[in-house]
Amino acid sequence: MRAQPKASHFIDGAYIEDDAGAPITCIYPATGETLAELHEATPALVDKALAAAKRAGPEWAALSGTERGRILRRAADMMRDENRALSEIETLDTGKPLQETLVADATSGADALEYFGGLAATIAGETFRLPGGDWAYTTRDPLGVCVGIGAWNYPTQIACWKAAPALACGNTMVFKPSETTPLSALRVAEILKEAGLPDGVFNVLQGRGGVGASLVTDPRVAKVSLTGSVPTGQKVYAAAAEGLRHVTMELGGKSPMIVFADADLDRAVSGAILGNFYSSGQVCSNGTRVFVERTCRDAFVDRLRERLKGVVMGDPLDEATNYGPMVSEAQMNIVLGYIEKGVAEGATLAHGGRRANRDGFFVEPTVFTGVTDDMTIAKEEIFGPVLSVLDFDSEDEVIRRANDTPFGLAAGVFTDDIRRAHRVAAAFRAGTCYINHYNAAPVEMPFGGSKMSGVGRENSLAAIEHYTERKTVYVGMGDVEAPF
Ligand SMILES: NC(=O)c1ccc[n+]([C@@H]2O[C@H](COP(=O)([O-])OP(=O)(O)OC[C@H]3O[C@@H](n4cnc5c(N)ncnc54)[C@H](O)[C@@H]3O)[C@@H](O)[C@H]2O)c1
Ligand SMILES: C[N+](C)(C)CCCC=O
């Protein structure tokens, strides 16, 4: 199986290679086969990409929002037309089942391009009447060259969630995908060019953390948007602060999902499946601490185990498969290490718990019961298919325990009591909360984290705040009175 792109990087409207860069081998996680051989960007290519983005900026920003938006919306249509091919690349790159990538990756990227393409023409300032006939107005100006850095779980979505608002606002971007999943961002760049994007406005560079770090501190860069882990976020935020660069940080989580006994249990089980086993658990916002009211815990676990009989583990390119491998051998070993710790610390393995007996990096969907707040599996982000069931007895108790984490990405509550639902949502300290649902992320709503899970928001009108800055102009209409 091969998925070799034309070259490793896409700079100034063209593919480009530099064999001097350290090799990056792209592996199909379902079999361990090599899909493609790429190279990290050399310092010369980093400079070339930033120079292209800097040069292209003024002309791109000078277009009207309508003109910029038209290109983004055309790219959205092209992505939808090409959804199957894009989904196949995503499946090869990540191992996620085609059944998922057909509906959640390029389509989500297209939604962002369409939404921000539509919004581009509406980005405007305000006017203020002031005493004596004076007045003031604001403009919303682009920031300049933005750097996007991606994680490996949603490569196409991440590229588009960053590029679409940045470009709609008149910025340019250098995007560095994760070194684990380098393929799809290149096709996104090509599509944008085919849709009419001027050369240099969106560039893709491959590389590991070192390439990312060299982008973050370059004086030409005005903003950095990272999707990644908390430790990387801390480093990138600190490096960006040195130049007082704007940041968006979409980081990790250890989110709670609370199931009250009055909830529709089948719906709650569906939520727990979506919030733990979709993308084989490799989702930032997953509700991995499932707090279940003690009186319905056994019924919940029984139904969950019954539903897990519906897992179809297999070739991710087969549309019947609904459960794929971990993205890499390294990630599989991290997840297996956490499962071992869960057992060693006294949690009860209620389902799964092993590497699957097949090629590739598959880990069985795993459910622990009897998990307590102090166990490692209840405290640390695992980023794999490991669901922990924790018992609780009262609303006050569970809210306190749900919030007792340094993370604050997402949180969910399942209950049929409408007042309780909103009371609990109000009490959550998390950026994205769900009532009787989990992990939906339509482009219309802000998505992002509180506390250690992030800074800023992606999607929605909120993203415009993060890719523009206001300029205020005071207009004097009368005499200027001075003290002497
Ligand atoms: N909040 C969100 O929206 C969201 C979405 C997806 C993933 N994530 C998080 O991402 C993590 C998994 O992804 P990962 O393993 O790729 O994360 P990671 O932090 O290892 O890497 C993320 C990206 O940062 C780059 N990088 C690493 N060190 C860097 C440095 N010093 N300077 C600049 N760039 C650097 C990497 O090359 C990669 O492209 C999880 O913690 C997950 O929760 C968050
Ligand atoms: C759209 N999801 C499924 C919430 C994923 C957002 C990105 C997190 O990993």
TrEMBL record:
One of its GO terms (biological process) is glycine betaine biosynthetic process from choline. Keywords: Metal-binding, NAD, Oxidation, Oxidoreductase, Potassium. Residues 17-473 form the Aldehyde dehydrogenase domain. CDD domains: ALDH_F9_TMBADH (cd07090). Transmembrane segments: none annotated. The keyword Membrane does not apply. InterPro entries: Ald_DH/histidinol_DH, Ald_DH_C, Ald_DH_CS_CYS, Ald_DH_CS_GLU, Ald_DH_N, Aldehyde_DH_dom, BADH. The active site is at E250. Gene3D superfamilies: Aldehyde Dehydrogenase, Chain A, domain 1 (3.40.605.10), Aldehyde Dehydrogenase, Chain A, domain 2 (3.40.309.10). NCBIfam families: BADH (TIGR01804), PRK13252.1 (NF009725). This is Betaine-aldehyde dehydrogenase. It comes from Kangsaoukella pontilimi.
